[in-house]
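lol so apparently i was supposed to do this last week
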Amino acid sequence: MAIETKYIWMDGQLVETERATVPFLSPALHYGLGVFEGIRCYATDQGSAVFRLREHMERLALSAKVFGYRSLPYTVDELVEATKATIRANELKQCYIRPLIYHSAPNLGMNLDAGEPKVGIAAWEWGAYLGEAAIRQGIRAHVASFTRHHPNVTMTKAKVTGNYANSSLAKTESLRLGFDEAIMLDPQGYVAECTGENIFMVRRGVVYTPPLATVLEGITRDSLLTLAADLGIEVVEKPIGRDMLYTADEVFVCGTAAEVVALREIDFRSIGCGEMGPVTHRLQQAFFSVVQGQHARSAEWLDYV
Ligand code: PPE
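anyway here it is w/ PPE bound
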């Protein structure tokens, strides 16, 4: 189904979607030169609220810095306000938000200094990323034959558009093999992350997740670590081998688009009892309670539109 949205914010103006276009001869398109964010806005009893909006826009600015831009045409505060204006203009109660900084230049070329960053923000209704059933029942994953980025090849802290060719290779392979998602190993062979989610495992009540060196610093990941601490669940960040996933009691993934989803099977091995485990369930419930405005952390993490 095509994305339905009326207006897209393009460099300071709300433009009708049909007119929000980028030239074919754009270096962003040819070389994957851009950085982006994925953000969600939820309907709550007090109105629409964006989850950790400021942190997402701060990460966007940091992605641009890692990528090599020396300055941006907008401040984080301006991008926060532009996001809210986009949601209001499209009369959305809940939505997914996609800010994109893309490289624009008079000529094709890879030198960032020969062009300038342009900014767009789109918002549209986007349901459960891995399907409604995934949230309740979990999904089946495989370990991808493609390796996740080496931090000195294409860095993992920046959400660079071109980096997602790597995710696309793994995701397409996974779906063609009949799985729902791909687990990617880092260049050393340790578990890194999925194509668009961070990964966790649970063993004897303790939650383990790979350290940040080779994965995206996920905002949902950070939120779950905080919620786990609030619930008195111990969390350890350490390198994880793929067989540690096979022998875990529970494995789950999280991300803005995916939210919190259990992996009930990996590489044809059922994980734990083969369905969402109790720790995953507690964290998933806490997460949804936060984004629906019903949790002690809601006030801190929700930004009302
Ligand atoms: N790792 C990767 C590689 C990643 O792309 C995401 C977000 C995460 C971890 C989780 O980060 P966070 O959203 O801050 O918790 N993936 C975004 C894009 C997904 C897409 O298909 O596009 C997202 O979830 O919005």
